[in-house]
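Quick one, tokens below. Sequence please?
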């Protein structure tokens, strides 16, 4: 584990006005750079503080404020492997290990008064919160867990370096209190245990108001009073790749108890808002296409009389495949009915849609299955170099409109050559089994077909038999993914 030490803080820290909140007697920070776990030394006495540009603060004097509007993230496949983290595609809230505008940049450190070679062990000795705390560092080999609140997460870590920043992830909205007990070992000495320090992190767009009135009066959280409901869309990723999943969640503050939503989209600022059919829950999830770049999305919350309670600010989808723009191929859909597990196979007449119908229970009763076929995928090569080509495809994931997901590795295929020009030498790619059949599936690029050098010019048509295998625990709903294609 890398070590920690003090460094000068260079980014501005912002104290948030809190006069009307329950944290009126504390310093609240929502942006800036600080060392949260900082071993302070005065006259040889060591203590655990927070080292900020506002000064060294006792843990009880400080609240970190993580606003969903900047902290919300969608769980990636890699992040989902961390102990205590939510499933891939769900929303969590992040204080990132790299400095980002408008967010807290939170690290560890210790005083330069400590001699070189000092080691510090930080342990979570008490924890309360509406969800889990997950602390990790991004590395070339994937996420490295540091510490967390889940039973299977590390409860402590030891540092022996100068200064370190990590990712702080929180799985749900609300207040978290984290008690840390640290021990310090100087070279040649024995471990010295410091007094515990309890830190507070509040995850929510607005700080909770102080209770200054009776039931139903302003400031009283037990009644509605005249508190305005704020609706925020969380889960927006920094950018998306074609074929990836956007999973957005509407968050009410304060919670009204109402759950009737509609989601709307429009193409840029000048477009007309259009309602999304079927999207009526707090979460709206969809497969991203290249054409969705710049798409705006908003949520509207309604009461029982269908009157508008709150409307979110729109968020904008950014699609960036880093210059490697794949061809947006057909969408692939299968449905698990809520009341039965039958599957009927159907293929839409349009080449860009493949409907596998209803999933059915396999004879072994260990999975749901659906099969079908791609309509022709056409590859045309008119290059004079005639150097051959390889066509590949992948499906990153499937999603329902309300956010349930199925990883693309559950889809397998058996490619075929449906047709080729005279003089072409085209072969189908190898069959790929899904993960439930002990194969890798199509979540990564797999060869659909290829032509040899000197015999690739012309037009070829490629197809594939599809087999979707889903676990019996799959949530009912209609799952849609997109096959993306590339030819090189």
């Amino acid at each position: 584990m890398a070590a920690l030490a003090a460094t000068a803080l260079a980014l501005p820290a912002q104290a948030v006005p809190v006069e009307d909140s329950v944290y009126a007697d504390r310093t609240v920070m929502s942006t800036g750079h600080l060392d949260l776990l900082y071993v302070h030394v005065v006259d040889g006495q060591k203590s655990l503080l927070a080292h900020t540009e506002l000064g060294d603060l006792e843990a009880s004097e400080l609240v970190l404020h993580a606003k969903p509007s900047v902290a919300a993230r969608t769980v990636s496949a890699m992040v989902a492997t961390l102990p205590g983290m939510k499933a891939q595609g769900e929303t969590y809230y992040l204080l990132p290990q790299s400095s980002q505008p408008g967010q807290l940049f939170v690290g560890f450190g210790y005083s330069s008064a400590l001699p070189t070679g000092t080691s510090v062990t930080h342990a979570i000795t008490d924890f309360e919160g509406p969800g889990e705390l997950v602390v990790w560092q991004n590395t070339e080999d994937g996420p490295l867990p540091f510490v967390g609140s889940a039973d299977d997460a590390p409860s402590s870590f030891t540092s022996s370096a100068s200064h370190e920043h990590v990712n702080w992830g929180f799985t749900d909205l609300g207040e978290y209190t984290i008690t840390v007990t640290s021990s310090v070992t100087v070279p040649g000495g024995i471990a010295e245990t410091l007094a515990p320090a309890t830190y507070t992190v509040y995850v929510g767009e607005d700080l909770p108001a102080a209770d200054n009135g009776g039931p139903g009066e302003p400031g009283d959280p037990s009644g509605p009073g005249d508190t305005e409901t704020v609706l925020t869309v969380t889960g927006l990723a920094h950018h998306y790749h074609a074929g990836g999943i956007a999973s957005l969640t509407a968050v009410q503050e304060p919670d009204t108890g109402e759950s009737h939503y509609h989601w709307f989209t429009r193409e840029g600022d000048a477009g007309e808002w259009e309602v999304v059919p079927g999207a009526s829950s707090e979460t709206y999830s969809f497969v991203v296409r290249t054409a969705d770049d710049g798409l705006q999305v908003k949520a509207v919350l309604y009461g029982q009389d269908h009157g508008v309670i709150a409307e979110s600010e729109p968020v904008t989808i950014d699609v960036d495949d880093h210059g490697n723009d794949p061809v947006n191929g057909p969408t692939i859909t299968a449905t698990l009915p809520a009341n039965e597990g039958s599957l009927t196979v159907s293929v839409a007449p349009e080449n860009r849609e493949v409907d596998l119908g209803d999933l059915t229970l396999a004879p072994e009763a260990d999975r749901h299955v659906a099969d079908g076929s791609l309509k022709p995928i056409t590859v045309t090569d008119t290059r004079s170099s005639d150097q051959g080509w390889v066509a590949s495809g992948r499906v990153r994931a499937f999603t329902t409109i309300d956010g349930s997901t199925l990883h693309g590795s559950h889809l397998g295929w058996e490619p075929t050559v449906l047709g080729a020009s005279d003089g072409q030498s085209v072969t189908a790619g190898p069959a790929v089994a899904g993960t439930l059949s002990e194969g890798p599936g199509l979540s990564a690029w797999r060869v659909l077909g290829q032509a040899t050098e000197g015999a690739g010019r012309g037009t070829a048509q490629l197809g594939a038999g599809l087999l979707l295998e889903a676990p019996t625990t799959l949530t009912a709903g209609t799952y849609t993914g997109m096959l993306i294609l590339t030819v090189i």
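The helical segments are 68-71. The first helix runs from residue 68 to 71.
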